[in-house]
Amino acid sequence: MALLRARESVMMRFRPLLDAHGINEQQWRVIRVLEEKGPLDATELAARANILAPSLTRMIRSLSERGLVIRGADSLDGRRVILTITEEGSRLIAAVTPQANAVYAALDQAFGVERIAELVALLEALSALPSESGQRASASEPDV
């Protein structure tokens, strides 16, 4: 519960910013991962953005309709979908990033840079623990 409360406390600072740009948290993670990593297949994108595959499928349709991502077939395996951010998606990232950085700076100021660094390190270590089934959490990207 403490982790969920902390996440909510942080995300409530970002939601108005994302809402103002007509995008939700999960959509932001998807386009941000594509901007940072380049074209990815849907499975890899879901893992890196920490989104379940069925949710990603619905999201990609919406992001495609808005012109933020494009879908293409893998040249080696036509069954695989490759997703790429568009110029419009990159412009959205560029518009939101300075404002998101201001939120991060306010968090640094309020909570302390060292404490945030320590918290991130602890959360990454916790995420790296194998589950009871022996699986590790997916490659994590920051929420915002």
TrEMBL record:
Pfam families: MarR. InterPro entries: HpaR/FarR, HTH_MarR-typ, MarR/SlyA-like, WH-like_DNA-bd_sf, WH_DNA-bd_sf. It comes from the Bacteria. Signal peptide: none annotated. Residues 1-128 form the HTH marR-type domain. SUPFAM superfamilies: Winged helix' DNA-binding domain. NCBIfam families: HpaR (TIGR02337). This is Homoprotocatechuate degradation operon regulator HpaR. It comes from Pseudogemmobacter lacusdianii. The gene is hpaR.
